[in-house]
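PROTOCOL LOG
Step 1. Enter all chains and additional molecules of the complex.
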Amino acid sequence: MAERNEPVAEGVFALRCQELKKSFQGVMAVTGATFDVPQGMITALIGPNGAGKTTVVNILSGMMKSDSGHMQIGSTDVTNWESHKIARMGLMRTFQLSRELGGLTVLENLLVAPQHQSGESLFNIFFRPGRAKREERENTERALEILNTYGLYDLRDKRSRELSGGQKKLLEIARGVMASPKILLLDEPMAGVNPALIDRIGGYIMDLKAQGMTIVMVEHNLNVVEKICDHVIVLAEGRTLATGRLSDLRANEEVVHAYLGEVINASTTR
Amino acid sequence: MTLFWLSVGFGFVTASVLAISAVGLSLQFGITNYINFAYGDFMALGAYFTYVLNAEFFHLNIWIALVFGSLLMGILAVLLNQFLLSPFARRFSKSFYVMIVTFGLSLIILNVIYSIWGPNVRNYTMPLEHVLHIGPFLLTRDQLIVMAAAVLMMLGVHLMLKTTRLGKSMRAMSDNTTLAMTSGIDTRRITTVTWFLSGTMAGIAGSVLGIAEGNLTPAAGELFLFVIFAAVIVGGVGSIYGAMAGAVLIGMATEVSAAFINPAWKLDVAFVILIITLLVRPTGLFSRPGKG
Amino acid sequence: MSAFWYYVFTLVFFLFDYFILAMGLNIQYGETGILNFAYIGFVAVGAYITGVTGMPSSAGTGQQYILGWGLPFPINLILGGLTASALALVVALIALRRLRTDYLAVVLISLSLVLYDVINNYVPLFNGADGLYNVPEPLAGFFKLTTNSFVPFFAMLTGVVAVIMWWVMSRITKAPLGRTLRAIRDDDGVAATLGKSVFRYKLTSMLIGSFYAGVGGGLIIQFGGSFNPTAWLPGETFVVFAVILVGGVGNNIGLLVGALLVETLLIHLPAFLPSIPGHPGLIEYIDTMVVGVLLMVMLWFRPQGVVPERIRRSPFTLAKRSGQTLDDRAVVVPVAPVEITTAVGQETTNG
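Step 2. Run joint prediction.
Step 3. Record the structure below.
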């Protein structure tokens, strides 16, 4: 297994997983995912199709329960917590196939995200209307700024189901950002979007890192990984094969054999 | 003790009716993945088709009338699926819409029955029966036929699912429709066949219920639907064998309890079992992955 | 008062009452996506409790019923609503957390049938199949109302109650709470990953909706002075669904339109038609069929209803906030893109 690169070894981990396992109807999808996600960095989760990446993301976000293993956010053990509790610990996710809240407008999609809003309680609506209103105004201002950043400002009052595929991808990320997470889990944020948008999304992710957010992204495109990711976790056949820098992994025979082989060969035989 | 055995005998009869209807409902649910709230009215309509052939026109023997009446219901179920439910299911991805349509269909069928046959109790034309003593049980010949028919049908469904191509395709579709479609199964044809089977079984169950109870009323199917739901959920939604087991359990429990408490509470016994199941094992006795 | 006006005010009453019932079902189904097929059961519980808490002790009335507290008007009505909510709490704790939407619908419709069965058979509770009758006319003594003047009075009173409940409901649906409910309706998995406790919000929605159901039921029993099981067969739930689906799910004005079209014009107006000789009840049967067909036609051709859910626009813009001369139409992308794809392009050309 490759040595961890320096910043990782010294840093603090935002998220740690140990021996996560999950099977469906007797078929093992995840056979032992063990990895640490360094705080404040962009970590890529890569691996061939069927490596269990999406299952791992589903377990991390609480949408599926693991059969065994542990997971912790910061120093809190959150193994098999319900997804809303994991979200409250500061982990937000996006989906590979965008899951916008279709009946809500673009702006409303963002406004749902902030945690513990006063206006979400019946009591506050009728007995502390001022507080609820003030908070709503602040949230709206913040949401509009985020929409402006993500180029969705003009679409704010459109029902989100009417957006294009690329716009929905942006909305997914913007919604995650609106929740002010500590860790943002992006499931293939650049899949199926045009090249110009890939560059833009890359910029957004770098910007989030600059703001101190920890990013975990499932990604197929190794160019993306090379350009923006600090740390890489390779999954193959449901288990962690290696972790480290992409450059280190290229030297790892096992990784090259399992996954990187063709891609790396293609990009090194210039 | 006599009362106990008597009620066990009734339990077998009720379980038989319940098994036929619960399996019919489960087959369709497995394939289309939405619940048909009009199923109870399918049963009632099938029973009235049998009534028409048996008592109003042709004056067929009750069992022959039952066969034709039920097949008629099967054909009607196919047509309803083809021209009403299937288009809705294709157009709206959320099962809300189809379920509400079946709820509406239920109301329409019920009122069609009321309009044609009125709210009064009707009776099939059947020869008077001698009660047979079989071991500790007291049963009529018709009740025995009902039980035998149920056992044969369960066996038939089992063999169809396990051995025929049709049955295997149905199981594949029930597990994963998209996968079944991509692996070359003609899902539309399977859906049509399933609706035919489900509708026919509803017709048989409805007619048999009328025979077992000695009369038929328009709302009989609707009230019975809840007992079917209880059997299906207790057995494990989507599982054919669960539906059979649930039918026996609920059928027995309701009839045997009637020997000890007021028979008016039969329904509530089923409901209590349903609630206990939900609390203890919400996926039912024979749960299937992906359907719970 | 002429028979004509008596009919008109009866229709007005049902318009307002079904507006209330529609609002209750709408927050459950239209806002939160809960298929409450037991809705009419909650209406019935509200009606019975309003009745028995408002009626004097059952001794000597020739009826059997529990409680008999003889409470004055708004208190018994509120108790009816609260009891319906209490029932919703029990149902939610047992079934809401455990079941996915369609099984929940099955359990709820079963509940509706069992409630019906219990109340019909267990006479000491609410007088069984005969139902409650001689329910006191609220405030009739206070305003010295006659049998004739009670109908318009109570229709108007129901209107007042409906307006209050509409105001309360629109506060809820406009607030972040309503938005979170709609998020759960659209995709409860996403709502959960955004930190929303789906169960808690569904429970809230069930409680609010059931309160509306109970109050709607309580008004019915006090308007008619009687209530029995034939008034709330499980199929009645479908009528309330028809009201909200025809009128427009998620829109309060739509609900009023739906109540007018379905409940007032389709269900109650034909009830005044003379019955066809030799075919008692035929009009009613056909009427119910028409409601079923109408609903299917609406769902197919105009699934959003007559008055669709409106887009909730924000009153704020960036420009208004900062006072800057930021062009409202301009798309500003302050974050610089990273050149990723250009590298890919070079590779392919070079390789």
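Step 4. Note key features.
The mean pLDDT of chain B is 88.
Chain B touches chain A at residues 289-290 (CB under 8 Å).
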